[in-house]
Amino acid sequence: MAEQDLRFLGELAAQLRVDSVRAAAAAGSGHPTSSMSAADLMAVLLAHHVRYDFEDPGNPANDHLIFSKGHASPLLYSLFKAVGVITDDELLSFRKRGSRLEGHPTPRLPWVDVATGSLGQGLPVGVGVAMAGRLERGPYRVWVLCGDSELAEGSIWEAAEQAGDTGLDNLTLIVDVNRLGQRGPTRHGWDTGAYARRFGAFGWHTIEVDGHDPGRIHEALEQARDTRGRPVAILAATRKGAGVRAVEDREGKHGKPLKEPDVAVAELGGRRDLRVTVRRPERWAEPRRFEGGELVLPEYKVGDQVATRSAYGEALAALGAARGDVVALDGEVADSTKAEEFAHAFPERFFELYIAEQQLVAAAMGMATRGWVPYAATFAAFLTRAYDFIRMAGVSRSPIRLVGSHAGVSIGEDGPSQMGLEDLAMMRAVYDSTVLYPCDANQAAALTVEMADLAGVSYLRTTRGATPVIHPPGERFPVGGSCVLRRSTSDRATVVAAGITVHEALAAADTLAAGGVRVGVLDMYSVKPIDKAVLVEAATTTGNLITVEDHRPEGGLGDAVLDAVCELGPRVVKLAVQNMPGSATPQEQLADARVDRHAIVAAVERLI
Amino acid sequence: MAEQDLRFLGELAAQLRVDSVRAAAAAGSGHPTSSMSAADLMAVLLAHHVRYDFEDPGNPANDHLIFSKGHASPLLYSLFKAVGVITDDELLSFRKRGSRLEGHPTPRLPWVDVATGSLGQGLPVGVGVAMAGRLERGPYRVWVLCGDSELAEGSIWEAAEQAGDTGLDNLTLIVDVNRLGQRGPTRHGWDTGAYARRFGAFGWHTIEVDGHDPGRIHEALEQARDTRGRPVAILAATRKGAGVRAVEDREGKHGKPLKEPDVAVAELGGRRDLRVTVRRPERWAEPRRFEGGELVLPEYKVGDQVATRSAYGEALAALGAARGDVVALDGEVADSTKAEEFAHAFPERFFELYIAEQQLVAAAMGMATRGWVPYAATFAAFLTRAYDFIRMAGVSRSPIRLVGSHAGVSIGEDGPSQMGLEDLAMMRAVYDSTVLYPCDANQAAALTVEMADLAGVSYLRTTRGATPVIHPPGERFPVGGSCVLRRSTSDRATVVAAGITVHEALAAADTLAAGGVRVGVLDMYSVKPIDKAVLVEAATTTGNLITVEDHRPEGGLGDAVLDAVCELGPRVVKLAVQNMPGSATPQEQLADARVDRHAIVAAVERLI
Fold first, then answer.
1. Residues A401-418: pLDDT tens digits?
2. What whole-number distance in Å separates Cα of residue A461 and Cα of residue A463?
3. What are the structural domain ranges in chain A?
4. A548: confidence class by pLDDT, cuts 50, 70, 90
5. Cα(A497)–Cα(A535) distance, rounded to whole angstroms?
6. Mutation choice for A interface testing from B202, B256, B417, B546 by most A CBs within 10 A
7. Do A103 and B395 touch (CB under 8 A)?
8. Which residues of B are catalytic?
9. pLDDT the model gives residue A221
10. What are the C-alpha distances in Å from A574 to residues A146, A392, A595, B564, B566?
11. What pLDDT is stored for residue B493 in this prediction?
């Protein structure tokens, strides 16, 4: 690299440090020292390696730059200033109310793919973007900046395995090994070899480099670009707070603005106003997409016994035929979730992530940033493994579709480890989420299709065992709706059910009717958003509601119903799984948990 | 090894296979083929290496045997039969209602430490047991059996890093590399070298072995026992369903009983009734424990401004001085959670798990099995990373104490990635959990102590910023209780708050009182169990409740209150965080989320 280029890079890195210090000083908080360590790395990357049209963030040929160490946001925003897409004034709005420049980056900024700040997430999401790149034969590269502390997260190694095993050579990880975590020294300090051995064992090409030497950094990035068949990890030894003696490589300086920012800026050579011209990507005709066609949903005959998970699998395959943008992701249980129907039909658009649920969800997020429509499925219970990713997908407003099978005690003999009993609570609490829980095969198939065009995180809960088909083929089930299955003017109460308990509620209603007691039955297939109008009507007419769910009493259907009617004040009895189940048959489990037909009858009799 | 010993081991392994086949056949479900692959490994381990007094499972010198591949429960139960602690009749009760022999093992069996069945958990928990072994200078060893599929879980690599870096040579991992997962071939098939390279890179000693050769297995286990300074991973190539041609090394045979069990039993040489005598451990005087003393809680003056997280740290240090069995675990944020107070005072009992929340919770579970009283703390938001472990701790009834700091939007500028907004929903849904949320420093200190003697999973939610001390030192806060902060006979409504919103509620009550409107204020520091009596009284007297929480509307305080009073039918208005926060000051955040004093005043005015 020419002397003048090196000089420019040195100046640019100094500017990035200065602006990081200034932004944090203006905010009175933030992470300048974590930004300063990576300034040289990002200066070289931006000026010589990234291909990005900052005038058109939607250009499909643009590279992707993901700050997995989201707390280095001052550095990221300083980069945005250096390329001219934000002003110095906006830079100084960092962390202030209303500013797009939040404490940790979010996609409110058009150049940010996903929200980061929960460590260990950017790399797995980057793997998802790189998977999409391979699928669509994209010319773009994915660059991920990680801190060294976050390499302790298991999700990093799920990503390392996925990327290494599938040879994602469009992915480059840059690790800012600044030796100091939030609390003190990291486990491996500056032993970049320790990290290199680990990534190497997972099949990556690794490069150890001085993270403050622009020439070496440039060579490493060139080598990364030229490496074929393997992802590359650049392990860069750096100094936290590099460039300012008061903070450089010192403990206790994490996540704080510098005490004397003006002195620091002077030490760094003062303010600069360099502009970087980032190379635009080559023109790329079109991302590869797959052909679609007419949607021909499977149809199930009323009265047949079909598991909702089976209907999900068949509907997903039908959707895959109709829409070329649908992809399916599996946590090595596709034979159980029935996503294998899709795998057989569209092997190119099916992704096996093995038993790595964090990477499963992150891959969906990554592919969604590229416009794919991902459906990721595993057991409902095991989605708990990825809750932090799902939470952050909510922050990102990432349009991902999650499917949890084997919900509730009704799975039977396998016991509590396999039962999704907290999933409704978990998914409902996610920002702007949609939570759907079909009771029969036609409903499950229709809701599978409904999910395709939803914004944000959506969730479909399916049941292991076969349940009777009660809704005819062709019936519509809009999100936010419900089905009135029983209603009469003489109803003494209304039973509100979803999924498997709908069938228990119908049986209970029949038993009660035989004894002269009429009750209404609602099928609340849309748990969030919930059909408030129909619940309010039931609350004001019968005045007595019984909710019944194959889920813990906290945060599920019952709470959703209460939330909808609480300002009216009807009497509500909640039936839910209070016990710790062991092994038993499905019907024994429902009875032991007191969410079966007999429990419903007893609750109605007690209430009226 | 002598010929006759080898012959016995072959017979024993055959018996374990036969009994696994029989148990699954009797149940009509289960995982016999996953049991059969590991039968030789477990036969050798049990007959020659494990030290365990089966007549006294509470003997502190006993080894620990953890089936991380919990679905191999037929094999585990066949082992228990072979040592004579369960009968053949009980073996055949496998997976039947009421049987202790559940589909996946749980601590209902006295020889089982923790529930497994969610893959990738047994090893991290085993690491926790081994950490306890080192702390108490125990003579016992920890043996963990993993499947190969579950090595895809990131939690395995969190465990590998923790054990490798700290050189836990009392831990041996045995991996049953049977090449076939649930759905089909694993990523690495029989390439035991791929796994060996990975564990080796993380600092483990590794041994590759034929998992059906008892002599070689014995040598490997001896080598594991003799290895100093490093944990050992034995990577054993095996055949799923080994011993029965109809299923051996065949796809599509996972998780199903054999079609012709009698033929299979005959092929395996028929039923046997061998008994194994497991060597008892040497006598060991006493686990090392630390001295305790008097409990001297920190005291905070009413009116002072103190963060509840600070009070947690100081109280934990005080508790550590009073009780030698208390240990603290950190996810590399002890300076934020304030667990560093304990770290300074009791470095031997403080464990840094770095940013690996799954291993953090698993280590707590492992240490709890040894009688330690663990407190594990990180940001409330990041506990979502470990939700599957927390859920399984509930299944295990594991007495672990979790502490989540930086709850809610009130953290301010850092933005949504750092805000615990789903933690109450997540923690409340866990079986038999306790959820505590103090509003001031004296309450936080007292609740920290209350947690020490709780069964099951307990959770303390703390706040980042300083809040006024309103409860005098010495006040008691029993779990399940609450504090009536404002009450009069002329109350028009009752505001139900917890944590930071208590102060907003008091301010709102003052504002309203100035305008002639009296409202009650309840401090619900115990979110689960909740003080139903006081809520019922408020519901029946004022008839109007306003709940206000710094949490999502789903599954938190508001839902807990509704659950308590829903059968009475008062009118309830829930105030909670509906928006997606950005960066802003704490008070701006509370206002934007409409959970501040002004929002409460407006809600009261609307309601009455």
1. 999 999 999 999 999 999
2. 7
3. 3-267, 305-468, 483-607
4. very high
5. 12
6. B417
7. no
8. 357
9. 98
10. 46, 31, 10, 10, 8
11. 96
Euclidean distance between CA atoms B344 and A534, whole angstroms: 58
Under the banding of pLDDT at 50, 70 and 90, the label for residue A1 is confident
Q: How many Å apart are CA A340 and CA B183, to the nearest integer?
A: 9
| Contact criterion met (CB < 8 Å) for A96 and B583 | yes
Task: Residue B266: count other Cβ atoms within 10 Å of its Cβ.
Answer: 13
pLDDT of residue A372: 98
Q: Side chain identity at A312, as an amino acid letter?
A: Y
ipTM above 0.85, yes or no: yes
Residue A608 clears pLDDT 90, i.e. is over it: no
Given CATH 3.30.930.10, say whether it is the number of domain B305-468. Answer: no
Closest CA to A124 of A159, A163, A171: A159
Distance from CA of B185 to the nearest CA of A (A): 10
| Nearest alpha carbon to residue B323 among B346, B305, B340, B302 | B346
CB-based contact B313:B337 (threshold 8 Å): yes
Instruction: Give the C-alpha separation, A433 to A323, whole Å.
Output: 23
If phi > 0 it is left, if psi is from -120 to 50 it is alpha, else beta; for residue A269 that is left
C-alpha span between B158 and A172 (Å, rounded) = 22
Cβ-Cβ contacts under 8 Å, A70 against chain B: 417
pTM of the model: 0.98
CB contact under 8 A, A384 and B381: no
- Strand order of the sheet with strand B205-210? B64-67, B142-147, B171-177, B232-237, B205-210
The minimum CA-CA distance between B379 and chain A, rounded to whole Å, is 10
As a whole number of angstroms, the distance between CA B232 and CA B215 comes to 18
Domain B483-607, CATH: 3.40.50.920
Question: Given this model, what pLDDT does residue B109 score?
Answer: 98
| Positions of chain B with pLDDT under 50 | none
Chain A, nearest residue to B426 by Cα: A426
**Nearest of A422, A497, A419 to residue A459 by alpha carbon:** A422
Is residue B588 within 8 Å of residue B461, measured between CB atoms? Answer: no
Cα separation, B574 vs B501, whole angstroms? 13
Question: Nearest chain A Cα to B102, which residue?
Answer: A583
pLDDT, residue B326, reads 98
Cβ neighbours of A558 in B, within 8 Å: 563
Q: What is the DSSP string of A350-367?
A: EEE--S-HHHHHHHHHHH
Asked if A305-468 and A483-607 have one fold, the answer is: yes
Contact A413 B554 (CB under 8 A): no
Mean pLDDT to the nearest integer, A584-592? 97
What is the bridge-based pairing of β-strands A142-147 and A519-523?
A: unpaired
CA distance A4 to chain B (A): 38
Residue with tokens 């103090």: B438
Q: What is the pLDDT of residue B286?
A: 80
* Contact across the interface for A97 and B29, Cβ inside 8 Å: no
Q: To the nearest whole angstrom, how far is the Cα of A209 from the nearest Cα of chain B?
A: 20
CATH of domain A3-267: 3.40.50.970
Percent of chain B with pLDDT over 70: 100
DSSP strand pairing (A434-436 vs A526-528):
antiparallel
Residue among B249, B216, B13, B42 at smallest CA distance from B145: B42
Nearest Cβ partner of A425 from B98, B425, B583? B425
- The answer to whether residues B64 and B51 touch, using CB atoms and an 8 Å cutoff, is no
Burial class (CB in 10 A: 0-12, 13-18, 19+), A207: buried
Strand order in the sheet with A373-379: A350-352, A326-330, A373-379, A401-405, A458-461, A434-436, A526-528
Confidence of residue A286 (pLDDT cuts 50, 70, 90): confident
Taking 90 as the threshold, does the pLDDT of residue A48 lie above it?
A: yes
Report DSSP letters for B151-173, one per residue.
GGSHHHHHHHHHHHHHT-TTEEE
